[in-house]
Design goal:
By secondary structure, the chain is mostly helical. The chain has one domain. The protein is built from 4 helices and 3 strands. A 3-stranded mixed sheet has the order 1-3-2. The longest helix has 15 residues. It is globular and about 35 Å long. 5% of the residues are buried.
Length: 83
């Protein structure tokens, strides 16, 4: 539920500033948790949009959501940031 609210705030801000592309910081582990949560809640149809690099669900609003870190684990990101 918190993720949906956060996404709505990001989209509202992007729309108000006329931003066309937004990069989300969802790593592989975060996405795995969200996908399991969607399946448990009975929203398995949404999985197609969640695992794509570009989420085209909000194309009507002309905003593309990208997930550039989806192939990385949190540990890999933190290791990269340390060095």
């Amino acid at each position: 539920m918190l993720y949906i609210f956060k996404l709505a705030l990001i989209l509202a801000y992007a729309k108000s500033k006329k931003i066309k592309k937004v990069a989300l910081a969802d790593t592989g582990q975060v996405m795995a948790g969200k996908i399991l949560s969607e399946i448990i809640q009975g929203r398995g149809v949404e999985i197609q949009n969640m695992i794509k690099f570009l989420d085209e669900k909000f194309e009507q609003e002309e905003i593309l959501l990208g997930r550039p870190l989806r192939d990385f684990l949190k540990k890999e990101v933190f290791t990269f940031l340390i060095f």
